[in-house]
């Protein structure tokens, strides 16, 4: 996924490689990531019956970090060679990691209180935070009026899809899950801003991701213990499969692709794609749990697709 050779020892500046729109490669990768993330939210929710929330998140990022280190060793990628990173980038790396860890603490705790689809909707309000904050620091990321219209249309589509789920808002403590999902979305947006608007953006994608997952592990481990979660290994085959899928595909492959894309394509255009993930979560829930796909859901999918098209017009 990187464009530099194994022999390269210095990180390559990303500014010269940046594009002003999403091409076919970016669109394909984003769709694949969003489809998997939509599935992963439902998978994480199902796994909570056996694996406590923060303990489950810790497994995801510990496995992801291990896979990333093996990948870098195999590819000969230097993660911390002296003099290869912009001065002070490590501070922004720790900040991005803290924001990333906080996002997933909120997300996994929120899954305890409400449905996966509902908490995912609030999490994926992140593009609005990105669209508001990032143009203040990176003028090239500013959206035009028609693109704001596209973002609004996509959000309306997600809201319609979630409104079609009866009973979720009446779940005990659902408001806590909604609030935690909204906070997770804000933390995700701030992570994106740090990756795009600070010297950390000139560091290799692998190093950026290792900062995020490594610091997240450092936050999740004591957080899980402080909450009194039970650490154990007597999982069922389903739980083990879930943890490995979340760690290797979710924590390693999909996030590495996302960070790689952030270094080459406009973040606000990319972020608009994430509106597909809540809809995918609803579809996966319907197929997995046998819930019907309604006309409202189909209309929501059309609105989301139209919104993404408007945002990504050249």
From TrEMBL:
Highest taxon above the source species: Bacteria
Q: Which InterPro entries match?
A: AA-Vitamin_Transporters, EamA_dom, EmrE-like
Membrane topology per the entry is: Multi-pass membrane protein
Q: Which Pfam families match?
A: EamA (PF00892)
Kindly list the places in or outside the cell where this protein is found, as annotated in its UniProt entry: Membrane
Q: Where is the EamA domain?
A: 28-162, 176-312
Q: State a GO cellular component annotated for this protein.
A: membrane
Keywords, alphabetical: Membrane, Transmembrane, Transmembrane helix
Presence of keyword Membrane = yes
Asked if the keyword Membrane belongs to this entry, the reply reads yes
Looking at the UniProt entry, the stretches that span the membrane are 21-39, 51-71, 92-113, 119-139, 146-163, 179-197, 209-227, 239-261, 273-289, 295-312
Q: Which family does it belong to?
A: Belongs to the EamA transporter family.
Output this protein's name. Drug/metabolite transporter (DMT)-like permease
The protein's organism comes out as: Melaminivora alkalimesophila
Taxonomy of origin reads: Bacteria, Pseudomonadati, Pseudomonadota, Betaproteobacteria, Burkholderiales
């Amino acid at each position: 996924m990187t464009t530099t050779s194994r022999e390269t020892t210095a990180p390559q500046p990303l500014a010269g490689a940046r594009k002003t729109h999403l091409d076919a490669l970016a669109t394909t990768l984003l769709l694949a990531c969003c489809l998997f993330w939509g599935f992963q939210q439902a998978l994480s929710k199902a796994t909570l019956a056996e694996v406590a929330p923060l303990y489950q998140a810790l497994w995801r990022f510990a496995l992801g970090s291990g896979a990333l280190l093996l990948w870098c060793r195999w590819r000969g990628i230097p993660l911390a060679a002296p003099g290869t990173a912009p001065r002070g980038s490590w501070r922004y790396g720790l900040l991005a990691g803290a924001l990333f860890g906080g996002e997933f603490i909120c997300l996994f705790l929120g899954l305890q209180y409400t449905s996966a689809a509902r908490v995912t909707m609030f999490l994926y309000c992140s593009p609005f935070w990105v669209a508001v904050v990032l143009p203040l620091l990176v003028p090239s990321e500013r959206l035009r009026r028609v693109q704001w219209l596209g973002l609004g249309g996509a959000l309306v589509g997600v809201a319609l899809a979630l409104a079609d789920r009866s009973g979720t808002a009446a779940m005990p403590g659902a408001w806590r899950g909604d609030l935690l999902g909204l906070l997770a979305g804000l933390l995700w947006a701030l992570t994106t801003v740090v990756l795009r608007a600070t010297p950390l953006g000139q560091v290799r994608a692998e190093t950026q991701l290792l900062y995020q997952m490594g610091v997240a592990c450092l936050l999740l481990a004591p957080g899980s213990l402080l909450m009194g979660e039970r650490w154990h290994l007597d999982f069922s085959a389903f739980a083990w499969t879930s943890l490995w899928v979340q760690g290797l595909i979710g924590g390693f492959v999909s996030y590495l692709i996302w960070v790689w894309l952030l270094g080459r394509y406009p973040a606000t255009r990319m972020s608009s794609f994430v509106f597909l993930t809540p809809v995918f979560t609803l579809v996966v829930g319907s197929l997995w749990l046998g819930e019907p796909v309604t006309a409202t859901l189909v209309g929501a999918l059309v609105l989301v697709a139209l919104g993404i098209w408007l945002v990504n017009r050249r």
